[in-house]
Amino acid sequence: MATAETAPRGIQDTMFNVFMARAMYVVASLGIPDLLSDGARSCRTLADKTGVRADSLHQVLRAVASTGVLRTVSVRGAGDTDNDGEGDKDEQAYALTPIGETLCTGHPSGTRDMVLTLQGPIWDALTVLPQRLTTERTGTEIALGLPWFDYLRQRPDRGAAFDRMMIAVHGDEPEAVARAYDFSWAEHVTDVGGGVGTLLLAVLRAHPHLSGVLFDLPEGAEHAHEYIQASGMADRCVTDRGSFFDAVPPGSDAYLLSHILHNCDEDSCLRILRSCAAAMSPRSRLLVVEIVLPSGDEPHPGKMLDLAMVTLTTGRERTAREYEVLLARAGLRLRDVVPTESAVSVLEAVLETA
User: Fold this and answer.
1) Fold (topology level) of 171-351
2) pLDDT of 251-309, one tens digit each?
3) Catalytic residues
């Protein structure tokens, strides 16, 4: 319990963590990890190469080093790997740790992309959250002038970074979904709005009896076709093009809808779900892959993601009951909620009349 003289520690920590997040963004955006990838460098050398003030950079690097991303090599007489002349007496030198290596350009973890995206355009949108709450315009429309996904399409560099970040953030989620849900009853799967096909291919690999269709907008389907060809799964998986707001290909046993509904307001969700329902047979099942929020006040990663949804989109994370109501409005009945070893669950729905 806080006294009148002391702010609660949890609130203090939350408020001050923003300083470290911004410091890490500065380190990543300046390319400091790349400069340290071949060995330690002095703060003066790093400042010269990045065009910033050495004394101010030292304050940032000293703070970031406390997170384990960097380590101090020495305070006095630090050697510099680029042999730039007089040595680095009485200067701070820094080196990467294994954690810091994940912030290098091209690292497969996507950590650098995560930092630059969350603390770049998403941060810009988050700063206008108070205004967002007073209008139907999203944070990106207010701060960046465009809806989030339009912004990413018009900024291919940011879009590519976001895609890499999402692949990294979801990690082994596709494999977890493929393991958790029993596909033994199905023969054919359609991934609706499936992106490049990461989830669908994981499902097909885990269940060799299945064949699949990846359904997406023309641009997305084109990228997916290339990805599927490279995966060696083209004999079991094809692409189809269209908008899930208009119609979904009929004839599948299972329809995957992964991380789609949380991006959308209720009316858009209903349009998508009704398209799926129109394509389904009494045998078909709709498999909604999303984070399912707990109904209580306990901490949950989905609640943090929900803040991103209200900032970037007109969508939201939902509880199982909220999904049940939403599905019912589209003529679907929630039959089961299957947890996975990842943050998401699989909500299995069938036609109301089935």
Assistant:
1) Rossmann fold (3.40.50)
2) 999 999 999 999 999 999 999 999 999 999 999 999 999 999 999 999 999 999 999 99
3) 262
